[in-house]
Amino acid sequence: MHDTCKPDPIAALDAEARRHGARIATRCTRCGAWLVDPKSRAAHRGPKCRKAVSA
Question: What Rg, from alpha-carbon coordinates, does the chain have?
């Protein structure tokens, strides 16, 4: 039996950071803006840069 519902280690890190009043962020690889949204951090691009690249 495969365990397909493994806990997300990044989500756990995010939760721990928020408990201490901090946020996890990375920089957009296109424009350099700080990214705090989990989807944006995973893509290394913010929503505007993702749209610009896909257009």
Answer: 14
Cα–Cα distance, 5 to 23 (Å, whole number): 25
- The answer to whether the predicted template modeling score (pTM) of the entire model surpasses 0.70 is no
For the chain, domain boundaries: 26-55
Q: Per the structure block, which two tokens stand in for 36?
A: 């705090």
> In whole numbers, what is the pLDDT of the chain averaged over residues?
86
Where does residue 44 rank: exposed (0-12), middle (13-18), buried (19+ CB within 10 A)?
A: middle
Residue 30 CA to residue 18 CA, distance in Å, equals 27
